[in-house]
Amino acid sequence: MSLIVQKYGGTSVGNVERIHRVAERVERARKEGHHVVVVLSAMSGETDRLLKLAHEMTSAPDERELDMLLSTGERVTIALLAMELRGRGVQAQSFTGRQVGIHTDSAHTKARISRVSADRIKAALSQGTVPVVAGFQGINASSDVTTLGRGGSDLTAVALAAALKADRCIIYTDVDGVYTADPNIVPAARRLDKISYEEMLEMASLGAKVLQSRSVEFAAKYSVPVEVNSSFKEGKGTLVTREDADMEGVMVSGVTGDRNQAKITIVGVPDRPGIAARVFGAVANANIVVDMIIQNVSQASMTDISFTVPKPDLRKAVDLVQLLSQEIGARSVAVTESIAKVSLIGVGMRSHSGVAAKMFEVLSREGVNIMMISTSEIKISCVIEEKYLELAMRTLHTAFGLDRVSAPALG
Amino acid sequence: MSLIVQKYGGTSVGNVERIHRVAERVERARKEGHHVVVVLSAMSGETDRLLKLAHEMTSAPDERELDMLLSTGERVTIALLAMELRGRGVQAQSFTGRQVGIHTDSAHTKARISRVSADRIKAALSQGTVPVVAGFQGINASSDVTTLGRGGSDLTAVALAAALKADRCIIYTDVDGVYTADPNIVPAARRLDKISYEEMLEMASLGAKVLQSRSVEFAAKYSVPVEVNSSFKEGKGTLVTREDADMEGVMVSGVTGDRNQAKITIVGVPDRPGIAARVFGAVANANIVVDMIIQNVSQASMTDISFTVPKPDLRKAVDLVQLLSQEIGARSVAVTESIAKVSLIGVGMRSHSGVAAKMFEVLSREGVNIMMISTSEIKISCVIEEKYLELAMRTLHTAFGLDRVSAPALG
């Protein structure tokens, strides 16, 4: 008999019929003899509905009040599932984040978990009860409700799995696992049976929206085996786990694409020490996360500095950089929005050389110009023109041997 | 500077525009120098929407889970109003029932308040903050959310006013006060400036849906002055307060009608001791509240027993009484659904004799037959044929001098 934490996302509890199906799955796991803890998100669309109401009230809603508002969505779904389970004769009880002891700091709307007590869950489990827990929410030291940021229900599930030393944390979602690439862009993409925490983290941070990044960090820290699986069909999912020998045999595990960046270039910057620190210090102070940076070789004591920022922050960043460029005596500021980033990810890169060289060669063969490059131990990213993104992803997917061998299953 | 508890019902916070207007009213009270505590209901329709979801899940939803579900409605409105107030520069903060220390027993969906601490409200007030409190909800000794039953937000407001020794508790609703009769039935009905707790209680229990009964009991017990007023227009409301000499001068304060009762008659009951106790004991055990009872004079050791029950309980009551009538050897059971109860209410009845006689005479002059009569110190009720209810109410209203003297204001 094992202890399983099951987390269901917003689309999996999106209406009454789907909650019935979640109940069936929980009931089945109980009948198979497992202890089950269920973590739920709000019904899909509910968080957006509430946010819309908030912004109809006032232009900049207070964040403590936003948390009070947004935390209601999960309370609805946990109550509905618990009553459904009880109606079927499965002993179940709903619990809020507070009731299961998800303690957080006071950074409303993006709180960080400081401690998980899980006392009431342990008591419920020892009585054979299925605890149905509201994801996404916790409580701070003043006893005020906090929320963990978008995708925070994944974090709740992983944190509870860690606190309870669960055998597995299964994230039920609308896809059946982690793929070598987005199947909408790369039809030959394969589902991975296994992926390491590190690779998953790179995938998540590069825009593969399967698992929230912080939940992967948390899982890695406490070695929680996390399975990503579909709540809509039966079958195997992808296990996110510690790196093993198996994984290192594969050079590249996945290809990701990201259109969410824009490039800013400060042209004609006087090449003096401290200029870069000044620019990026100011940008960081404005809470804008810079992804990639390149600086040209200096010519006649002048240089160009290019960097990428998330598209939603572009206007703010440009305004700031315009001011800075005057202060530092730069010539001008140029903006390119039509860029994209294509990345290869794989723990195998550590032991296989030549991945970067092969990547550049493949892209150049297709006439794709590389504007910026950044590398880490298990990742290589290239910024290219946005229009080439799909082509680049498909070509790299094939070149690195990721294509599915057999024909795709129908349906 | 006085301390005012303002409570707004579901229609008063029914949409974004209306919440803006509530914020205006709160802001005005603050500018006039008052300390303000706001208590809110859920948006009108929200509780029904949630109940519908619950019944779509399962036929008999668990009551603890219902409370988890239903308590979300008020959390939404308090968060929205608090962010709106802060957006206007009024210092405000939302609090749940738990956060303000509304402690209750564990009777889910109809919990009773056991203790009110109000610590966080006191702290907020001392900092000049407007606490915006979720009505209708509390917390039991296990730290589970409870709800106080329909209309429970009134009770929250009165209980907080009592705990805070507030100068006044204003219940803002969709009517501008308590009337001598339902103006939809009696166009000449007048708004009362003042009414005693006792009269208000009789009105409430007889179906005048302005204030929840338990909140009036609570207000009477702790002498909280409660004002009923309109959230949609400016002007005077009705003050519910201790009885005073003024009130006793008036013979009758109001006329109410109630169509919610049905009559059951057990025909041919053997006239032996203990029969009535057996019948009404069984009915009470089935949680059916009997309102009026009459027993005919015995003839040939046989008697008829008639009593009224709430219409929603009629089928259950009839099934039970059919069984009982066989056991006790009664002849038959008859049911009359088309009855109504008309009542006169007034603390003045204590010092004015002849109210009952005059009531019977007025009804008889209109050809209205009286089927049952019950009286209390400040109330006389008659059960009549339902079709005569409006006629009876209007005639009594005029006969007891309650009609408005001046023409009704337009709009």
From TrEMBL, chains A, B:
Signal peptide: none annotated. It comes from Nitrospira defluvii. The keyword Kinase applies. InterPro entries: AceGlu_kinase-like_sf, ACT-like_dom_sf, ACT_Aspartokinase, ACT_dom, AKii-LysC-BS, Asp/Glu/Uridylate_kinase, Asp_kin_monofn, Asp_kinase. Belongs to the aspartokinase family. It comes from the Bacteria. NCBIfam families: asp_kin_monofn, asp_kinases, PRK06635.1-2, PRK06635.1-4. Residues 264-338, 344-411 form the ACT domain. Its EC number is 2.7.2.4. It holds the Pfam family AA_kinase. This is Aspartokinase.
